[in-house]
Amino acid sequence: MPALTDAELTVLGLLVEQPRHGYELERVIEERGIRAWTALGFSSIYYVLDKLAKRGLIEAAGGPRSGKSRATFRATRSGVDLCAEATREALTALTPVHARVLIGMANSPGLPDAEVRSGLTARLAALREQLAEVEATRASQEPLPDAAAAIFDYSEAMLTADLTWTKSVLDKETAMEKYDVKKAHRALYSPPSKDFTVVDVPALQYLAADGHGDPNTASEYTNAVEALYGIAYAVKFASKKTLGRDFVVGPLEGLWRADDPAVFLTRDKGKWDWTMMIHQPDWVTEEMVREAAESVAKKKDNPALAGVRLRTLTEGTSVQILHLGSYDDETPTLNRLHHEYLPEHGLTFNGDHHEIYLSDPRRTAPDKLKTVLRQPVKPL
Fold first, then answer.
1. Residue 355 has pLDDT above 70, yes or no
2. Would you say residue 87 lies in a domain?
3. What's 191's DSSP letter?
4. Taking the CB of residue 175, how many other CB atoms lie within 10 A of it?
5. CA 35 to CA 139: how far, in whole Å?
6. How far apart are CA 208 and CA 309, in angstroms?
7. What Cα–Cα distance (Å) separates residue 157 from each residue in 120, 128, 176, 361?
8. Quick one: 248 and 335 in the same domain?
9. 136 and 206 share a domain?
10. Phi, psi (degrees; rounded to nearest 5) at 27
11. Coiled coil located at which positions (predicted)?
12. Which DSSP helix (H) or strand (E) runs through 22?
């Protein structure tokens, strides 16, 4: 015979206890707080009664009645036996918990931190309300038989455990809010793509590594970028572990310079000097960077590790735009900046050409790349 669902076993058990009609089943289910641990709505009671009757597990008591709502049902002999068998199995069964909140937590990195905290806060409030309702239902029926008391104990324990877990996660989310430079300085990392905009760039701290030559072919460049990321993640993990302060590793950024700025328009990359950078929160210190570099060096030998340093860059007034597409297609935009926008606004260069690489070129098609092009400026 097919196994009983939780709803079927619950209703069958109540009819084994004593004959009842639909409205009485609803009253008992409500009074005992059964809905706190079994999904059994009022409308579904009659659906379950029909299923049990068709299987011969219950029957109408005292002959047929007019209308299902006042028909009294009782368990048959086979219903009593199956209920006992299913009850013995249920007492020993370990039912896995498939809490939907776990899926939410798994996907939470895709949401803003504030939304994650808001969702957990709402969950905490709902759990407290549900626990209060269960406690009030219990109190209204005291003293309870041992079996009924045990059921309430279990419901309260599960809700309390969930409440405790939710509160601890919320406390951690609040205490260790991740610093993200792209959010803290949104205007600097999300310029429009059609028009140049003027921004005031404050002093910001970076891991930095210097070099020369074509970034597409120079091993010096590859080593520098690898060293920067290795140290950046080592600093992040150390900060989280020792300081309780976490942050999102920022995008790769580059300062580009040459004796003749025209080489940027001609794309003569072999004559480029560069400083590659990754932003660091202001609480990161030279000592943390040095310890991180030593830790990375133990895992892999990279000559660029020794040259990574912590530096502060103050660019001040700058003009920037978001470039969409391949790095080699930046020339028209830079031409417009150098030969149209700056002269028309009485501005000239006041620092290195700065690029911020918002996309990962390993995973993004060239025509989809997003790069912030920034130029510090001053009046002519």
1. yes
2. yes
3. -
4. 10
5. 17
6. 5
7. 19, 12, 28, 50
8. yes
9. no
10. -65, -45
11. none
12. helix 22-31
Q: What are the beta bridge partners of residue 275?
A: 210, 255
For residues 227 and 336, membership in a common domain is answered with yes
* Nearest residue to 354 via CA among 244, 218, 228, 208: 208
Cis previous bond, 143, omega within 30: yes
312, two tokens: 């502060």
Report the candidate in 69, 376, 324 with the shortest Cα–Cα distance to residue 193: 324
The answer, as to whether pTM is greater than 0.70, is: no
Phi then psi for residue 199, to 5 deg, are -130, 155
Residue 239 amino acid letter: S
Burial of 250 (0-12, 13-18, 19+ CB in 10 A): buried
Domain containing residue 64: CATH number: 1.10.10.10
3-state secondary structure (DSSP) of residue 378:
strand
Tell me the backbone φ, ψ of residue 136, rounded to 5 degrees: -70, -40
Range of the domain at 31: 6-92
Shared domain for 107 and 254, answered yes or no, is: no
Same-domain status, 111 and 205 = no
CATH number at residue 112: 1.20.1280
Nearest to residue 306, comparing CAs of 229, 205, 209?
A: 209
Last residue of a domain, one of 175, 197, 220: 175
What value does the mean pLDDT take over residues 243-263?
87
Spatial neighbors of 12 by CB under 8 A, at least 6 apart, are 4, 52, 57, 58, 75, 79, 82, 83, 86
Tokens matching residue 358:
């918002």
Task: Tell me the angle at which helices 22-31 and 6-17 cross, rounded to the nearest 10 degrees.
Answer: 100
Q: Cα angle vertex 138, ends 134, 144, to 5°?
A: 145
Cα–Cα–Cα angle for 276, 278, 281, nearest 5°? 150
Mean pLDDT of 282-293: 96
Interatomic CA distance for residues 249 and 280, integer angstroms: 8
Based on the domain organization, do 170 and 39 belong to the same domain? no
Mean per-residue pLDDT of the chain: 89
Q: Kindly report, residue by residue over 254-282, the tens digit of the pLDDT.
A: 999 987 767 766 777 878 899 999 999 99
Q: Are 14 and 27 in contact (CB under 8 A)?
A: no
Q: Is the pLDDT of residue 302 over 60?
A: yes
60 phi, psi to nearest 5 deg: -70, 135
pLDDT tens-place string over residues 166-183: 999 888 776 656 899 999
User: Structural domain tally of the chain?
Assistant: 3
